[in-house]
Specification:
The structure holds two protein chains of two kinds. By secondary structure, chain A is α/β, with parallel strands linked by helices. Chain A contains eight helices and 16 strands. In chain A, helix 7 links the parallel strand 9 and strand 10. Classes of the chains: A alpha/beta, B alpha+beta.
Chain lengths: ~325, ~500
């Protein structure tokens, strides 16, 4: 009797250690119960997840985007706030559809932006949001602040609020105040309130934050519109995103092209267009390497799809790049 | 020529007079001390004094350049009656180094006269006529010209005017004489215009020992919020705007305003609003020697009825609502921070959405959403782009340069033509004499204006997959050079 209690205690402590290593709750470690929602005493569901509907992504994210946590969405460093904010809004739309399915109230979304991010990428435009994410102008609240500190203060206060569907914080660049401490506070508030906080970052280098999930979202070329008579050449179809999972609980790498269907409010994975080998097999095998000819840069648009799927140097955080010594 | 603008009592005893040339005065009394007149500084001082006097009554008005008018109706008993209040004012202002005269009466006119010409005030109600009868006409606030003409016919004091038949007096000297007399004697109501609107409800706390710390101010504010909450509950109202007034010992006054987006009377919530505001203002408020009086006023109120909670919800502590959250943000960061999108009746993209300050209104009608594709982000101002050439004159550009980067257009959809709102911009003015010719010229001008400001919108995708919303302003034609702009970003 006593020995079995000791065994169980050992087992529980081991299980907690494993859970800590894997970054999960010990209660969800049992094989058959994977992905279930655990209700803690306060009644707040811990580690709730929002399935994206894309199998590959959900597998890497372990059943989906966490809905009680801070999620970082990085846009392109160079330009274009459209893709990152469009992806964040698509997630909000998924969340809203999910909430409505559960019979919950239609709650507003708070979009917090710093002035320079708005000047750079434009103000969220209500008619466009209604079309893209099915978000009614009534349910859109916009907070614009001159400084990042104020934006983070609003975000922290709002993250603790259960009257909002989600909080989206848009920050431009790498301000010093958006450090591990600030993101950790945001994350803890989101955990406590059981609401997601999306941190949309424009023109920012990757830097350590406390967000358990970080996605890099770049724009991807859209497919032509599909009609009954087949694809219509020259038209712009569903918005597409090139999504890279840069940081996740499982740590598995993933890079895929997602298409967002605003009408169905669903993501679809686009199958790779060409399945050519990354390294081409030479037809003739000369014993000596050919003499170096003229080296030409490929035009940006004619990169092969396979080459695009390789992570590029910019995505390595500056602190992880080779450091110059001396 | 420099003249004397004001004199003190010893100077008056030297037979100097206002308006006298300075050189004459110096010739009479070489030892007089002369100071430059500073009307602006005088006005500031009077404003400061008026702020200080807010402690006696919320209705303080400036009276000319040298007086203050306090409506102390219903306030005197707080200071132990009119006599005690008068003594209090005289004592406190004399301590501060002012020479002050105070007169109390039931009418503004009588109080004005009593301050300047009588020693034994207050004048009891109904005794104005008797008290003012012996005073000169200057006590009636009349123009010097009117006064001089009346004195020239032997009307030298107020009693004389009061006993003169009314009709000839008005006919000869104007309506103003009768009006001033009636105002002084209380036959006609006279409104004073206070510097600040009086709150419908206010509570205050006088402190024996000045409070110095921010914590102390917050504690006192929460007490005041509690008292105000009780008063609001009794009236079945909630506050829409609150003002906290801090009176510093040395006379400086701080006013802190917060607004609410729904009627509020929960003391805790009101206190949280002030907590944010005081937090934001902490550097601006200098306690100096401390604050001796705090007043909290509800500047605007709205109806707030009690709502009954159901049995299940009775024990749950009330959670902070969205409106309360927005109020706190606005209290801290200003009321232009939280915005709500509101669709307007316009097809021009930048006019179709207006951002209005958040308020808990659900019934605002929304205009219909446009059926065409719209970007998810709209630049607040369309940015000009360099377009070398379009393949087809009326078509999309093949490449464009925006923010120092060249984008090669791979695919494009459009155009969507959006014409300007001519009914808002007005009809162009034309110069023509005859009716038929003017009509033709008008039509021509209208057509030109439309051709110059019509926009053709294109949705384009560049080689990297970024999707933009571009437009060409103006149509191709003789004498017009269309310009290209980037207006929005698609997902």
């Amino acid at each position: 009797m006593a020995s079995s209690a000791v065994v169980r205690e050992t087992l529980v402590s081991l299980r907690h250690q494993i859970a800590k290593i894997e970054g999960r709750l010990a209660e969800t470690l049992d094989g058959e119960d994977e992905g279930r929602t655990v209700l803690r005493r306060s009644g707040i569901p811990q580690a709730g997840c929002l399935a994206t509907g894309v199998e590959a992504l959900d597998a890497v994210l372990e059943s989906g985007i966490p809905t009680t946590a801070l999620t970082e969405i990085h846009g392109s460093i160079l330009h274009g706030g459209g893709a990152a904010s469009g992806f964040a809004l698509a997630l909000v739309a998924l969340l809203q559809a999910h909430a409505l399915d559960q019979g919950e109230e239609n709650l507003p979304v708070l979009w917090i932006s710093v002035d320079d991010a708005l000047a750079e990428a434009g103000v969220p435009y209500a008619p466009g949001l209604a079309r893209h994410a099915g978000l009614s102008p009534r349910n859109l609240l916009i907070a614009r602040t001159p400084s990042v500190e104020d934006a983070l203060w609003i975000a922290e206060e709002a993250a603790a609020l259960r009257h909002l569907l989600a909080v989206v914080v848009e920050v431009h660049g790498n301000p010093a105040c958006l450090d591990l401490t600030a993101t950790r506070r945001l994350h803890r508030r989101a955990c406590a309130a059981g609401r997601p906080v999306f941190l949309v970052r424009q023109s920012a280098a990757l830097w350590p934050t406390a967000a358990p999930l970080r996605l890099l979202v770049l724009p991807a070329a859209a497919m032509p519109r599909s009609t009954l008579a087949g694809p219509l050449e020259g038209t712009i179809g569903l918005p597409a995103f090139l999504v890279t999972v840069s940081k996740s609980r499982s740590g598995k790498p993933l890079r895929l092209i997602l298409e967002w269907n605003p009408d169905d409010r669903a993501f679809e994975e686009r199958p790779a267009q060409d399945s050519r080998a990354v390294v081409s097999v030479p037809a003739v095998r000369p014993h000596l390497p050919a003499a170096a000819g003229t080296v030409m840069a490929f035009p940006a648009g004619q990169q092969s799809a396979a080459a695009r799927l390789q992570p590029d140097g910019e995505q390595h955080a500056p602190y992880r790049r080779a450091q110059r010594s001396g | 020529m420099r003249r004397i603008a004001a004199l003190n009592a010893p100077a008056e005893r030297l037979k100097l007079k206002c308006g006298m040339g300075l050189a004459d005065a110096r010739a009479m009394h070489p030892s007089i001390e002369v100071m430059e007149e500073e009307p602006e500084a005088d006005r500031r001082l009077l404003d400061g004094l008026a702020d200080w006097c807010d402690r006696y009554t919320p209705l303080v008005a400036l009276d000319g350049t040298d007086g203050l008018l306090l409506d102390i109706t219903g306030c005197a008993h707080l200071f132990g009656g009119e006599h005690a209040m008068q003594d209090h004012i005289v004592l406190r202002l004399t301590e501060q180094g002012f020479h002050v005269r105070v007169g109390i009466a039931s009418t503004a006119g009588a109080a004005w006269a009593a301050t300047r010409f009588l020693e034994d005030t207050p004048i009891e109600q109904g005794a104005e006529e008797h008290a003012l009868a012996a005073l000169p006409l200057a006590a009636l606030r009349l123009d010097p010209a009117v006064r001089a003409s009346m004195e020239s016919v032997g009307l030298r004091n107020i009693g004389a005017i009061a006993s003169t038949p009314r009709a000839p007096l008005v006919r000869r000297f104007g309506q103003i004489v009768a009006l001033r007399l009636d105002q002084a004697l209380g036959r006609v109501e006279e409104a004073i215009s206070p510097r600040h609107p009086a709150p419908p409800l206010s509570v205050e706390r006088q402190l024996a020992e000045p409070v110095l710390s921010m914590d102390g101010i917050e504690t006192l504010t929460s007490r005041l919020c509690e008292s105000l909450g009780v008063e609001l509950e009794r009236r079945g109202e909630g506050a829409r705007a609150l003002r906290l007034t801090l009176f510093r010992v040395d006379g400086a006054v701080h006013r802190i305003d917060v607004g609410t987006s729904r009627p509020l009377r929960e003391p805790r919530l009101m206190q949280r609003l002030f907590h944010e505001r005081l937090g934001a203002l902490a550097d601006d408020i200098d306690p100096g020697c401390g604050f001796e009086l705090l007043r909290l006023g509800a500047m605007a109120t709205g109806r707030l009825d009690l709502r009954q909670t159901d049995l299940a919800g009775a024990g749950v502590p009330e959670e902070e609502g969205l409106a309360d959250f927005v109020d706190r943000v606005q209290a801290r960061l200003g009321d232009r921070v939280m915005m709500k999108a509101c669709l307007a009746q316009s097809h021009v993209p930048e006019r179709a959405v207006q951002y209005i300050a958040f308020a808990e209104t659900s019934g605002t009608p929304l205009a219909a959403l446009p059926k065409q594709a719209r970007p998810i982000r709209l630049l607040s101002r369309a940015e000009p782009i360099d377009v070398s050439a379009a393949e087809v004159p009326e078509g999309p550009p093949s490449a464009f340069r925006w923010r120092r980067m060249t984008h090669r257009v791979v695919r494009a959809e459009g155009p969507e033509r959006i014409a300007p709102e001519w009914w808002l911009n007005g009809i162009p003015h034309v110069e023509a004499d005859e009716e038929p010719r003017r009509e033709v010229a008008q039509k021509q001008a209208m057509r030109t204006m439309t051709a110059q400001t019509t926009r053709d919108y294109f949705r384009v995708e560049d080689a990297e997959g970024c999707r933009f919303w571009l437009y060409r302003e103006g149509l191709y034609g003789p004498g017009t050079k269309p310009r290209w702009f980037l207006h929005g970003l698609f997902a």
